[in-house]
Write a structure and sequence with these properties.
- By secondary structure, this protein is mainly alpha-helical.
- The protein has a domain of about 50 residues.
- The protein has a three-stranded antiparallel sheet with strand order 1-3-2.
- The relative contact order is 0.10.
């Protein structure tokens, strides 16, 4: 039976890895993820502008299989950080 122990260990490790993968995917898919074309359309920005935001770490992203995904919540956070409150009529020059 000792000859089969390594095989059993490998099977257990595979089972654990599958469980970890399922947990990761469940967490990953809880949020809405958008492709770059969707983000550019929502923000009304050019590809280069989006690229600059991503590469300057202003907008986090994930790349899977050559496709870049951005969390909708990260877009909302970026918009909120850059939100300038509307000035009241009494504050106009």
């Amino acid at each position: 039976m000792a000859a089969f122990e390594p095989l059993t260990d490998i099977q257990n490790e595979i089972h654990e890895l599958k469980g970890a993968r399922v947990k990761f995917l469940a967490h990953f898919l809880k949020e809405e993820w958008l492709r770059t074309d969707q983000v550019m359309q929502i923000l009304k920005i050019a590809p280069r502008t989006l690229s600059r935001r991503m590469h300057s770490n202003l907008l986090p992203y994930t790349k899977v299989g050559g496709i870049i995904y951005i969390k909708a919540s990260d877009i909302e956070e970026l918009l909120n950080k850059n939100h300038k409150p509307e000035s009241s009529p009494g504050n106009q020059i």
